User: What shape does this take?
Amino acid sequence: MSPFLAALLGLLAAATAPPAELYFEQATLTSTDGKPGGPGVHSRVWCSGKRMRLEAGDAPAGPAFVLRLDTGKAYRLDPEQKVAVVIDVERLRARSQMDLSMAGDLMGGAENGRVRTAALGTPKTIAGQPCHGYRITAPSVVMDLYVTEAIPVGVDAFADFLEWSGASQSLGALLSEIRQLPGFPMQTRSRITVLGQVHETSSTITRILVGPQPKTQFEVPPDYRLVPETPAP
Assistant: This one.
């Protein structure tokens, strides 16, 4: 799963309070049949309306991806070379929709009536926020989500990203169940069974700040050189 897709999936559930402006840090771990898939990935995400910025890693001011749905543009920023690669937004959208469609097929969450939600009994405190847990079960996936109602951010604020990425169409009934949860997701753990193997992904928000974000986070610095994206074979 790409870091961008992981960030989008981290925004799938919340209460009802648009628009969203927030910053959060997220740690993601994967495993197959109980064996770790690596050291994990740390991400930083800024959101402001139809604008999103994603940075991977623990070092600040590193390479970044900026998506501007308000202008129909996307950039990959390289601070070391002071270069902004202009991304083909339609190609990116097609790839995102393909990835989500595949994820939806694997999760078996597209058909209504085959997805169920149950409350988990033990609450948690995650990144200083009180959270309640829920388990969503579909034919091939089990998702445990811990959500908080202390964060005044609603899923409607991310509707543009969900529609653009294809999540609303590809995840079907699974997404419908997630969107009904009473709060913002602070931790998500999914277990998907594919060809007899159990693949687990756990994402936990370690820090979150809600409020206006600097406009410069979503812009190409004036001293950067714009270069076109080189299409992959």
About this structure: The mean pLDDT is 80. The chain has one domain: 3-228. Residues 95 and 165 are 9 Å apart (CA to CA). The domain at 3-228 is CATH 2.50.20.10 (outer membrane lipoprotein receptor (LolB), chain A).
